[in-house]
Amino acid sequence: MRIDGDICNACETCIPYCPMEAISMKDDIAVIDQDECVDCGVCQRAKVCPVDCIIFEPADWPRSIRATFSNPRTEHKATGIAGRGTEEMKTNDVTGRFQRGFVGLGVELGRPGIGTRLRDLDTVTRALAKAGVQFEPKNPLTALMKDPKTGELQEDILNEKVLSAVIEALLPIEKLDDVLSALKEATKKIDTVASVCVANRADPDGPYPLRKLLNETGIPYYINGKQNAGLGRPLANV
Amino acid sequence: MTHTLHRRGTAESLSKDYALMMLRAMGVNDSGYLPKCQEFLRIALRHNPVNIGSEMKGNIFEFPPEEIIAEAKGDSFVVFDNPKVVAAFLKDLKEADLGLSVVVSGIFENVDECFEKAGLKHHTANFSLGIWGKTEKLPSDDILEITTMCGHAMVSTNLVKAMVEEIKAGRKTPEEATKVLAPNCT
Predict the structure, then answer these.
(1) Domain containing residue B100: CATH number
(2) What is the pLDDT at residue A77?
(3) Confidence of residue A116 (pLDDT cuts 50, 70, 90)
(4) Which of B62, B87, B118 is the last residue in one of the domains?
């Protein structure tokens, strides 16, 4: 994102809209710190600039990934969907992505509202790879790995900043404790936050084995969450 | 694994917060999905939702409901503040049998009851394990209760603080402040 300094009337209205606090006043015009800006487009989409001087020009690689990860109205070429991850459990009734006996792990770095450099994602993906997870092949971040077996991301993107990015992985339910321990250690090394979640297919008689495991092991989880209602067709055999 | 999963709040505030989404699975049932998402929104309107929206179009804080439905593109969503209404809506959806996936977010215990009343079984659940890492960078919990309502973090901490100041100064009502914040959410 960029502000046309010839047009800006210094009203400062746009400043609080930036989730990354990247807009500031300099010499009586608003300017955007290009290193901190994640090209999410909030400042422009809010339509609060009275002189319409906020501009988005699609960037070249690797900066272009800022917008694809940060602006939810931009589709990822790797997934064909908008947003930062895949459909994950939201369409599990028809995709069968998470089968019984497995846990889907989602680690969204930068969320909520802090942002993340890809280098921090690299720290976490490498640790998770060592812990033996299988990265979701359709996740846009997986597409940016040199090798999904090691979790190592491409070097040229490591300094790019995004509002958030989701690591998605699959693991057998019995590995959950080990993987979460590895994740806990990795998140001590990052300069941002990570919103962490786990997904699980219900047993045929109704309950979620993962909920039982979380309760038994004392792993804290929120009282609110998401549930797939099983209304999709054709139903996957999971 | 995004959207409404990591919303923060008290049991009381979350008990009035139910976000539902209808979405297609790419490569499975995405062909001809749009009329189904539009019908989902039409059914939702019969139950007085707090908000409806279409992924690539926007929500009712940006456009009239009829325009959202007519110009819908991408997945659809609806927000309710009452579990009884959620149960009734889910029952209607089950009868309509639109064939796309539906995800309900809210307090597990309450959503479980809604499923039961609508005759639905558990399929897959997503549990939030909270926020890890450098949590000292986060704003206060009361700010997070607002900002985490947008799963894509499009509502900035500073805008929430600015609206709090506007309300305190008597320049805006809470409803007017909401209308400044909500359009940023996608």
Answers:
(1) 3.30.70
(2) 63
(3) very high
(4) B118
Contact A92 B123 (CB under 8 A): yes
Q: Do A227 and B126 touch (CB under 8 A)?
A: yes
Query: Which residues from chain B sit within 8 angstroms of residue A19, using beta carbons?
Result: 153-157
For chain B, say whether A18 makes contact (Cβ under 8 Å): yes
Are residue B141 and residue B101 in the same domain, yes or no? no
| Per-residue exposure over A119-153, b if at least 16 CB sit within 10 Å of its own CB, e if not | bbbbbbbbbbbebebbbbebbbbbebbeebeebeb
- Tell me which architecture the domain covering A72-217 has in CATH: 2-Layer Sandwich (3.30)
Q: Which of B123, B136, B164, B185 to probe the A interface (max A CBs under 10 A)?
A: B123
* Domain assignment of residue B106, given as a range: 11-118
The whole-angstrom separation of Cα A214 and Cα A238 is 22
Predicted confidence (pLDDT) per residue in A173-214, tens digit: 999 999 999 999 999 999 999 999 999 999 998 899 999 999
Residues 125-164 of A with CB under 8 A from B: 163-164
The reply to whether B80 falls in a domain is yes
CATH no., domain A1-57: 3.30.70.20
**pLDDT tens across B20-61, in order?**
999 999 999 999 999 999 999 999 999 999 999 998 898 898
Please tell me the pTM assigned to this model.
0.92
- Alpha-helix residue ranges (DSSP H) falling in chain A: 42-45, 64-70, 92-95, 118-130, 176-187, 209-217
A77-95 confidence digits (pLDDT tens):
655 555 577 888 999 999 9
Q: Are residues B93 and B27 in the same domain?
A: yes
The ipTM is 0.93
Q: How many domains does chain B have?
A: 2
A197 membership: H or E segment, kind and range: strand A193-201
* Cβ–Cβ gap A199/B3 under 8 Å: no
